[in-house]
Amino acid sequence: MAAIQTEILQPSHRKIKIARGKSPVQGQDAQLELYFSEDIENVFTEVKGIVDYKNHLNIPSVKRGDVIAKKTPPVEGQAGYDVYGNVILPDPVKDILIAGKNHVEITPNFIVIAKKEDQVHICV
Asked: What pTM did the predictor assign?
């Protein structure tokens, strides 16, 4: 109001700022970082001059105590406002639910650790 009154009483004919908004700050979705290869490889080996067709799949596996994955939790965004004072909400963030069967341990800080040697499977 003061800027408007000053311009009316003493015109400068310049642009004046009479309102200001603030853009919302977008949050960050949860992420899952994997510490093993997801690729199943076809590796044909030769045993005594004969190609082994039976044992050609190399499926990813882990040992007891190996860290399999780590989840980074989502980070909520911050609301902004328009020039009228109305709140502008950031887009909602997406979380990832991780759950393990008997052969994995999930720590409170979302680190997934293998409890025994086994093949790794991820289901979405």
From this structure: 0.65
